[in-house]
Design a protein that fits this description.
The chain is mostly helical. The protein has helices at about 1-20, 25-40, 45-55, 55-75, 75-90, 95-110, 115-130, 135-150, 155-170, 175-205, 220-225, 230-280, 290-325, 325-340, 340-355, 360-380, 385-400, 405-415, 420-440. The chain has one domain.
């Protein structure tokens, strides 16, 4: 029962510091770490916990992908790609909604910011949906739930944290980054399909019409201006696909097992840089974005980036402390004594993550509870690799779409100018379907690419 006590103390401190005192979440996580060290008298190991956190290379991977997303937003290369998708799908019944799902999911994976992505892509997709007959509350929720879907799609920083949780539990696993990403895509495909089907059902219910021809941009002009933006998915994703399919026959044969392993890990760093350089090269008016402004842009972003990195660092330190205290094993024993079984755990843990996500950022939840969740699910027969790939979903996606603290929903409402009550009622449908699909995937009832 000590494990539950430690978790309760940690959560109580975070809730008190973050909710009642309205202080930053990274402060709450750090203070909870210090309190746990004091309670367990682990002061002699505090330096080790700090080094464990700093030695987690995945923190640095998160940094480079966030830096990449900053440049993507500044160059507006994603806007041109969204416009191309809008032209291609706009004449389909409900096409603006499908554009929102596709564009917002991809942009959300790049930006890692649910509310920020709602504001960026929603400025284009929400008015387009309203013009084609979508009720304002539905337009707001399609955009917000699709934007947060990006949290579970590589190269989202949540994926990096989930991989770190898995490798911490299974350090000897022969798993490359490419292999893990393919499993994450395999999970994400089902949720993207679910979004499309839900949009289709609502379009039938509300009798949504296709967009008018005069509301769509010219196809030739849009392709001429935006075709380069469509190369971004290829630049970012292709290396990981090649790593997955040709790891043994090509990379290992030429670089050896160790070389192939480190090459796979290094992709998390250089691919973000390559994509950022590409975005800067193809930007139309470089005089509007001189290099000195790029430098200022990154330096000015450190203030907003530091809290997220600090939260993850302190979360990893708590994870290292919990490993010393055998929290995962103790929790597994407690859960086992309840005889919940596989279905019970698949019902309870996503619900727990959803509730915690109302007060703790999704990426922090992955760092803090990732190892515990993997251990608990593995104890009832769920594939731990599947659990790791689903961590960004059950922790990162639900946190932004579940009322009353659904930041993505509020961001969508501000653009759609939708009624609060109607938006919340419509949003609950999306939350319920999301939760049901999480349970289905974790139960292993659907085939997953890469497993």
């Amino acid at each position: 029962m000590e494990a539950i006590l430690y978790l309760a103390i940690m959560l109580a401190i975070i809730l008190f510091w973050f909710i009642l005192l309205k202080r930053p979440v990274y402060e709450a996580v750090l203070i909870s770490f210090i309190a746990l060290v004091g309670i367990t008298n682990q002061w002699s190991s505090i330096g080790t916990y700090f080094l464990d956190g700093m030695n987690t290379s995945l923190i640095y991977s998160m940094t480079v992908f966030v830096a990449m997303s900053i440049l993507m937003a500044k160059t507006k290369i994603i806007d041109s790609a969204v416009a191309v998708i809008l032209v291609l799908l706009g004449r389909v019944t409900g096409g603006a909604g499908y554009v929102s799902v596709a564009a917002s999911s991809f942009m959300g994976a790049l930006s890692g910011s649910g509310p920020g992505n709602v504001m960026a892509t929603g400025a284009i997709t929400i008015p387009a949906m309203k013009r084609s007959g979508f009720p304002p509350e539905l337009a707001a929720n399609i955009e917000s739930t699709s934007s947060y879907l990006g949290n579970m799609i590589p190269p989202s920083s949540n994926i990096v944290a989930a991989l770190g949780a898995y490798m911490a539990m299974y350090p000897d696993a022969e798993l490359t980054t490419g292999q893990f990403w393919v499993v994450c895509w395999g999970c994400a495909l089902w949720f993207i399909l679910q979004r499309f089907l839900t949009v289709f059902a609502f379009c039938k219910y509300y009798k949504v019409k296709p967009m008018k021809k005069e509301d769509l941009p010219d196809l030739k002009e849009t392709l001429r201006a935006g075709w380069q933006g469509l190369l971004l998915p290829v630049i970012i994703l292709l290396p990981f696909v090649l790593d997955f399919f040709f790891k043994d026959n090509f990379f290992t044969a030429r670089l050896g097992a160790e070389g192939a392993k480190y090459f796979s890990s290094s992709m998390l760093y250089f691919i973000a840089g390559v994509a950022a350089i590409f975005a800067y090269i193809v930007v139309k008016r470089k005089q509007d974005l001189p290099m000195r402004d790029v430098v200022k842009m990154f330096s000015g972003s450190i203030k907003s980036l530091s809290p997220a990195i600090g939260t993850c660092l302190f979360g990893y330190m708590i994870g290292s402390l919990f490993a010393d205290l055998n929290v995962a094993e103790s929790l597994q024993a407690v859960v086992g004594s309840l005889h919940m079984g596989k279905l019970g755990l698949c019902l309870i843990l996503p619900l727990f993550a959803c509730i915690m996500g109302m007060v703790i950022p999704g990426s922090s939840l992955v760092v803090m509870f990732g190892g515990v969740f993997i251990s608990l699910f593995a104890g009832v027969g769920v594939d731990p690799l599947l659990v790791a790939a689903m961590l960004p979903c059950i922790c990162g996606v639900m946190c932004g779409i579940t009322p009353p603290l659904a930041l993505g929903m509020y961001a969508g409402m501000s653009i759609a100018e939708s009624d609060f009550g109607k938006t919340v009622k419509n949003d609950l449908w999306w939350v319920a379907i999301q939760y049901a699909l999480e349970v289905i995937v974790l139960m292993g009832w659907l085939p997953i690419l890469g497993l």
